[in-house]
Design goal:
globular; 22 helices; seven-stranded parallel sheet; 23 strands; single chain; about 35% helix; 4 domains; alpha/beta; Rossmann fold
Length: about 575
């Protein structure tokens, strides 16, 4: 029911405004997060956009047009524009109007409406992959170009439901352990079980490809193991780093009946191929010297791509799928007969390739809001604070005369951040603190100031693991880490993160960094995330963009100024 007291205004250009200070704001935020993308999140009015891709992901996750329209009408301040009603119904209905099916060795594109097939048969994006028209409702397609066909259909505006099925892969027998090797009881949480079951879809052609979206700390690795257990097949797992690869190996050995001889590591330092093989995106995208820009076939340009064909894989898991490099996307287009599971905390990609995730890995199959898992106690409650710090007069002059790109660095490395860092460390004495940043010079200065260990890209894997184990065991309470700490580092003991600088306006980085401290805490204590930002500079502009995804998930940034920190007392649970 339209009500002037409601928090949502839907506009004719498919943008949606949400009033933050409205008492029904949480309802509006949770509704919009299911089918719209947050574009701006200043203090009082948040701006969302309803896009075809956001609606198709919603449709793939089971949301209907009537669900969306009913939700908007219940929270709208004014009547919904007719064109937006029509677009929502139209785009939601387009998902699955065309289907890819297999008959014998042939790949067919089918529709229930002959006019759609007529339109698609004439479209230049799709024409290269059509081999014949079988009848008014069926096009015969090039079976080897299944991924390219799906990419073309998304561009045209008719995302296909892929029902062409998958190869089973070489079989592999394993089970999940009820008691881990660490002598801890192990059982999938309800949402982990549901996520795996939704992806698997009882082995039908409607399952087998797609993305599971869960917060950092919610156990995405467990979902991957659950799918592996369901499929009982040889599996290739791609991860963002060697540390992440070895964490997968540790978890597989601890929680499944796989033995070390069945698990291989294929990284820069080891090249072992086993029934379950874990590799990294960096290894897979290694180029031979002199091949860049020569337009070679992918396996010649990227020699480790041969790993995709080394075994009869029945499943490929893309961990942190939002980091998937473009060359791996290109090769994944040729792997559509293998089941593909993407795991991520956020579908946000700073390169705008969300459509390729949708086309080539699969649509979003399962998503749980971060705050929902927080309420259930599966991830820690986090208090998020932005501290705005002025530049000193001499640094303000340097900032004013710097080139545009250099302004970013001057603001990010503001020396006054160290004074605030002193005060925050005093406030959190005795806590387990991670200090994270982008600029190595800044981090090295912090190391000299406090004597805390520092992990960077140059730190050996062995030394990283030694320091991370020491932090987990309580022998270290303070650790400095560069952007290598953004992903797949499991430090459940960390309850404070202080971010001194970030990668421009990266929303995914902000989400991943908060995720480092979201593992549930002993004694139900709070997690604290501080972002140190230089006031009235590009640092503050980038920070506003970085916050968008977490704001959408229900986190509110508390704003403090540098001169307030001396008297600041962190809230307690």
């Amino acid at each position: 029911m339209v009500n002037p007291q409601n928090p949502i205004i839907v506009q004719g250009d498919s943008t949606v405004l949400l009033e933050v200070d409205n008492q029904r704001y949480p309802e509006g935020r949770d509704l919009l997060a299911r089918f719209a993308e947050l574009e701006k999140s200043p203090e009082y009015i948040h701006t969302y956009r309803i896009s075809p891709l956001s609606l198709w992901n919603a449709a793939a996750a089971g949301l209907t047009a009537s669900d969306i329209l009913a939700g908007l009408e219940a929270l709208a301040k004014y009547p919904l524009p007719d064109n937006v009603r029509h677009d929502i119904a139209d785009y939601i209905s387009r998902y699955g109007q065309v289907k890819l099916v297999r008959e014998g060795d042939e790949l067919h594109l089918t529709a229930s409406d002959a006019l759609i097939i007529t339109e698609l048969a004439r479209h230049k994006q799709l024409r290269p992959y059509i081999t014949a028209q079988r009848d008014p409702l069926t096009l015969c397609m090039d079976a080897a170009r299944r991924g390219h066909i799906k990419q073309a259909l998304v561009i045209i505006g008719y995302p296909a439901e892929d029902l062409a099925g998958y190869v089973d892969g070489e079989s592999l027998t394993l089970h999940l352990r009820p008691i881990t090797l660490q002598h801890q009881p192990f059982k999938l949480r309800d949402y982990q079980y549901t996520a795996a079951a939704t992806f698997h879809a009882q082995g039908s052609a409607s399952g087998g490809s797609g993305v599971i979206v869960l917060p950092c700390g919610a156990g995405k690795t467990m979902v991957g193991m659950a799918v592996l257990n369901q499929l009982q097949t040889n599996t290739l797992i791609l991860t963002p780093s060697t540390v992440a690869a070895r964490q997968w190996i540790d978890e597989l050995l601890d929680k499944t009946t796989l033995d070390p001889e069945q698990i291989g590591e294929y990284t820069g330092s080891r090249k072992s191929i086993k029934p379950v093989t874990i590799s990294t995106y960096q290894t897979m995208t290694y180029r031979r010297r002199g091949t860049r820009g020569k337009n070679l076939p992918l396996p010649e340009e990227f020699p480790h791509f041969s790993l995709f064909n080394e075994r009869d894989w029945g499943l490929i898991i893309y961990d942190e799928v939002h980091l998937l490099p473009a060359p791996v996307f290109r090769f994944t287009a040729e792997l559509q007969a293998r089941r593909r599971l993407g795991l991520t905390a956020t579908l946000v990609r700073e390169d705008g390739q969300e459509e390729d995730v949708f086309s080539l890995i699969g649509p979003k199959k399962y998503d749980v809001p971060w705050r929902e898992l927080e309420k259930q106690g599966w991830i820690a409650t986090a208090h998020v604070t932005e501290v705005r710090i002025p530049l000193l007069p001499e640094d303000r002059v340097a900032y004013a005369i710097a080139e545009e790109r250099e302004k970013v660095r001057v603001a990010a490395e503001n020396p006054e951040k160290l004074r605030i860092l002193d005060q925050l460390l005093a406030r959190h004495y005795g806590d387990n603190v991670l200090i994270i940043g982008m600029y190595l010079g800044q981090l090295e200065e912090i190391q000299r100031r406090y004597g805390f260990p520092l992990i960077t890209g140059k730190t050996s894997v062995k030394q990283r693991q030694t320091l991370l184990h020491a932090f987990r065991d309580g022998h270290l309470q303070n650790l400095i880490i560069s952007k290598v700490g953004n992903f797949a580092i499991d430090l459940p003991e960390a309850n404070v993160m202080i971010q001194t600088s970030g990668t421009f306006g990266s929303r995914q980085e902000e989400a991943q960094r908060l995720g480092r401290i979201l593992r549930p805490k002993q004694e139900n204590t709070l997690a604290y995330f501080y972002s140190l930002v230089t006031k009235d500079t590009k640092d503050q502009e980038f920070s506003a963009n970085r916050q968008r995804f977490l704001t959408e998930q229900g986190y509110r940034y508390h704003i403090l100024y540098g001169d307030e920190i001396a008297s600041y007392l962190p809230p307690e649970r």
